[in-house]
Design brief:
By secondary structure, this protein is α/β, with parallel strands linked by helices. The chain is built from 4 helices and 5 strands. The protein has helices at residues 33-47, 70-80, 97-108, 118-127, and strands at 10-15, 18-23, 51-55, 84-88, 112-115. Strands 1-2-3-4-5 form a 5-stranded mixed beta sheet, with helices on both faces. Helix 1 runs parallel beside helix 2 (70-80). The longest helix has 15 residues, at 33-47. It is globular, with a radius of gyration of 14 Å. It starts with 9 loop residues before the first strand and ends with a helix.
């Protein structure tokens, strides 16, 4: 059964000729693999964008506990479906060195980014190559 989730709070930012879906909802939108897949399908259907920015509040807290495996599973789906992804928010409360290393390494790549604010997230995604 296919369930389409409607995301009410979204906008499209255009920068450097690139459209970025910005989801401003702070309710938890992603709490497991299925909700991540639903989000991917919804963003594609509602916006047509292949880049999405999400407030960290919209991710279940297990995402930031690497031992749960949730971050890896979810981010792999975004990469598999060719959707570049940026999460923004205050990450200073996380003290895990593996998480900080993961975020640093992600920011060195071209598909997943962690940013301090929405504007930085949009900048990173709009500058990321194809």
């Amino acid at each position: 059964m296919f369930i389409m989730t409607t995301i009410m709070n979204n906008k499209i930012a255009q920068q450097n000729g690139v459209n970025v879906a910005v989801l401003t909802d702070t309710d938890i939108l992603v709490n497991d693999m299925q909700s991540a897949l639903d989000l991917i399908a919804t963003v594609n259907y509602e916006t047509g964008c292949d880049r999405v920015v999400l407030d960290k509040a919209a991710l279940h807290e297990d995402f930031f506990r690497l031992s749960s495996g949730l971050a890896g599973e979810i981010l792999q789906k975004f990469v598999t479906y060719h959707l570049k992804f940026a999460v923004y928010g205050d990450f200073s409360g996380y003290t895990s060195k593996p998480l900080k290393d993961f975020m640093y390494e992600s920011n060195q790549g071209n598909a997943v980014f962690f940013a301090e604010n929405e504007e930085d997230a949009i900048d990173r995604l709009s500058a990321a190559g194809v």
